Amino acid sequence: MSEQQIKKSDDIAQKLLTRIVRGALKPCEKLRQDLIAREFGVSQVTVREALLNLASKGLAVAVPRRGMCVAPMDQNAIQELRVMRRALEPVALLHSVPNLTAQQFAQIEQVHEDCDSARTAEDWEDANQRFHMAVIAACNMPRMIDEIRNLQVLYTWHFNNLYTAKWRPRADPDHAAILAAIKDRDAAKAHSVMQRHLTRLA
Ligand SMILES: [Zn+2]
């Protein structure tokens, strides 16, 4: 595949990922390569690559005689994902806090505002994930960051499937406390608030 095809397949994977996480594509729904190829005006090889990308993230599976489908919901996954996030995110934050630049800090403040002022579940979800990624941005552990990003996607996907229509606009006191700890460069405090925050996740 050319570099352009790879970029195209990454874009398609990202668009399909959003549809899966937001429920426009349901668990176990068939992912029709021909239709996806037509919609995006690309070859089936490019689509295939996008679907393999989703499979590597745990969002799609190859089903015998059906082809690629959205992965099924796993009722136990949300608990597992919560445990994994709680194991990784506070540690990433601990390493990130001492290295955050003024620019990164400004970005965290902005995303925190976006999060608190979100008026729809989708806006909140987007801002919330950006907040959780922004605070760990300076941990200097790219593999950890990739892993955490994927855990958050899987977590949000399961959460949306299992707990729809529960979201209400609200300010998040944990996020405010994390922001305050970061401002004080108190990595240990930020770590402990993040741990508590992720323990409270539904
Ligand atoms: Zn949060």
Instruction: Record the strand order, biggest sheet.
Output: 1-2
User: Which CATH top level class of the largest domain fits?
Assistant: Mainly Alpha
Task: Tell me about the largest β-sheet.
Answer: 2 strands, antiparallel
Chain-averaged pLDDT: 93
CATH superfamily of the largest domain: GntR ligand-binding domain-like
Q: What gross morphology would you assign?
A: globular
Number of structural domains: 2
Helix fraction, binned, reads 55-70%
Domain HTH gntR-type: 6-73
InterPro entries: GntR_C, TF_FadR/GntR_C, Tscrpt_reg_HTH_GntR, WH-like_DNA-bd_sf, WH_DNA-bd_sf
Protein name: HTH-type transcriptional regulator McbR
Pfam families: FCD (PF07729), GntR (PF00392)
Short description:
The chain has 202 residues and is mostly helical.
Question: How does this structure look, described?
Answer:
This protein is mainly alpha-helical. It has two domains: 3-70, Arc Repressor Mutant, subunit A, CATH 1.10.10; 77-200, Up-down Bundle (Four Helix Bundle (Hemerythrin (Met), subunit A)), CATH 1.20.120. 67% of the residues lie in helices and 4% in strands. It is built from nine helices and two strands. A hairpin with a 3-residue loop joins strand 1 and strand 2. Helix 2 packs across helix 3. It is globular. Residues 128, 132, 175, 197 line the site of zinc ion.
